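Researcher: Last one for today. Full complex below.
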Amino acid sequence: MTDETLRFAYYPGCSLNSTAKEYDLSTRAVARAIGVELVEVPDWNCCGASSAHTVDPFLAFALPARVLVQAEEMGLDVLAPCAACYGRLVAARAEAARHPDYARRLEKATGRRFRGTARILNVLELLGDERVAAAVAGAVTRPLEGLKVAPYYGCLLVRPPKLTRFDDPERPVTMDRVLQAIGATPVDHPFQTECCGASLGISRTDLVVELAGRIVGAAKLAGAEAVAVTCPLCQTNLDSRQEAAAARLGEGLGLPVYYITQLVGLALGVPPARLGLRRHLVDGLGLLRQKKLA
Amino acid sequence: MATPNAPLVMKGGPAAGRLLAKVDAMSGTQVEACYQCGKCSGGCPLAFAMDYQPRQIMRLVQLGLEDEALASSTIWVCATCFTCTARCPRDIDIAGVMDALRVLATRRGLRPGDRNIGAFHRAFLDSVRRFGRGYELGLMLLYKLRTLRLTEDMGLGLKMLAKGKLALLPETAKGRAEVEAIFREAAEGAREAAEGARKAAEDSPETAEGAAAGPGRSKGAAGGDVR
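Model: Here's the assembly. Have a good evening.
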């Protein structure tokens, strides 16, 4: 980066410690490569997605609020790569404004005072920031030429638009621009903001197989060779249910589902081994090798 | 975005007004503004798997048909993707209404209209309460055990373990006592809310059947059971 270093309170959340470790690895690698400093929230807890909001509104507020309070104490804005975490953090801030007693109850339970001063950013918001975009563009050493990628934004970065205030809820473009900046070809398709079924992937697998088939099927039909995502639930559903979806559709799919940060990292010259590219269920390395990108 | 004009007032007796008022207050939105255009149902990616369409749920709330709304599979099948909320021409937070209805169903101790989805949410929150952080492997095992679907996804689970996608042991937040305290505070608030609803129902007995002993009430699950 140029003059001032960008620093963020980094909230990985539970998935980035487990199923989505490659999202964590690649986000940190990209940040390092462009000189953005990520300081992990010291004692973060689960944000409550995808369940707390279905049983109790105070619980849905207080779990993410405890994370936000720590970021406030650090005096930093928050970077939350997981779209579900991001959605819950943004919702918590809005709920605090609507229910003044929530902050009081949180303080009673934990001794922590919520102020609601920290700004909350998702990964595309960071990559789309003018300074960051310029740093990325200037640091590309291995442009992903010839790689046709379907951007898949999912739900929670762009909706509800009144809370996220990020990009266009029906026709977002930030990821397309990031893909162009790293030399890849974004492929337009109609399912970019359609839901993947989120946590229904475990409880109602049948529904997610249907939704994953629609999304990956549309990407493939449009000519994409891979899908790029920003959410661990999206990645897990589109990756792990793709085989079943293909069987149901009666056609091969086989599109690797990358986190956008894995692709950016690759373009910035981060070694593939440090981007978790072997952790995919639909092979993530074969396509890149075939294109001589890894 | 424009605030809807003078709200339509539905005349459905005291029970109707009460459900509408509760849901409006909880979701911070005005369900009475719904004019049944169906844009929510048309755009809902999961409408194909619901018993009532989202538009019909709005009507049930307007009419005060609480038992029907709370027993529906719709409120559990909804994945909270907010497509309906983003598109509603009457500016109703429909996904927020689904949340309010799930919370009301939980407080009344109703068996979720989709048992597997309900069991997942319980297993998930049990894990968060215990460790302060989600523990995916433990969550999956607990969930599969409770729903007696242990063999389903066994192959996928093993593949994910082999890829290192499932941590074997839970991570814990140092401040998990604080997380536990948050759960206790939530449970206390929910008990108070359930008690308030019970009293309100007692005060007008002609509409009490909904709050006291609706169909599908599971035994021993007292209102306000936040797990």
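Chain A has a mean pLDDT of 96. Chain A touches chain B through 61 residues (CB under 8 Å).
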